[in-house]
Hints:
The protein is an alpha+beta fold. It is 37% helix and 21% strand.
Amino acid sequence: MSRPVSRVLTLLELLQAGGVRTVSELADRLGVGERTVRRYVDHLVDLDVPVESVRGRYGGYRLAPGHRMPPLMLTDDEALAVLLGLVAGRRTGITAAAGTAGETAAAKVRRVLPERLRRRLDAVLDSLTFTTDAAGAVAPPAAVLLPIADAVRHHRPVSVRYTGGSGRGGERTLYPYGLVAHGGRWYVTGRDLSVAADRTFRLDRIAGARVLPGTFEPPPGPAPAERVLTALATAPYRHEVTVRVRGTAEEVRGLLPASVATVAAETGGGEAPPGSGGGGSSGSGGDAQPWCRVEIRAERLDWLPGLFASLDRPFVVERPDELRALVADLADRLRDAARHRPTGEGPPRSRQA
């Protein structure tokens, strides 16, 4: 690469770092005169790179938004960050692009890397594994995500073509409160004007989105993420489960996923439920310990006994009776497992002092 071309690319890299760069600063960094700096800027402008001239005492040059993205100059660390972000985004569903856009973007970055750096990055990507399942990740199309994001930011209503889980579709008008990425999916939560109620919608079920005229004022209350998690936890399922757990609501919330369970403090003091072993605290005073109510909606009950046992806190099943039987069955199996010894092994020998 000839030296002038190399300096022009270095100039582009300096401008991409952001802010206004004075002519004298650029001349010093490039090792050329100020007139040469201005000539290099003209070269970038001829290549449709949007370089702006800023007048005044602290004037100089800066990179401005243009009709297309100029060439990017990335350091080794920046290239690694971009590739890892693309790979992680594709695996978790956070990449806001449908189809193969993430893969083609990563391929373009790799294609222009020096051989030395490409081999090192390939070593990272080849040795990297994820504990999350990529199969469940669903990326929303940009044609849906971008209009909804714009409506959220500017508090504008938005019209969407939505198909629900039952397969029924139709036009909906929303006052969108926020976008939330959770569990490999994207959601928008807001006011559904067709039913005059707050709703949560999956973006991968939206076929089109259009920002409408007008504005609205977002209501006070929970943040968008909390609204989505609550909607997921209270969605209709086959079983409605209510369990009382000893501890404050804050303590128990920290032990259960918000998208699975809703936790509320018990009203009426800390009286222990019958058969719970008592609610009094140890030591003098005998003050009752608090209890809270946990509600879960689930298609299956078989995983819940282990979940509540893992809390390591007294709990009482209020409903359904089927769950109470499953808890008793788990307790019997754990008791049998604790009593079981391998064949031929006698009782444990006492240790000599």
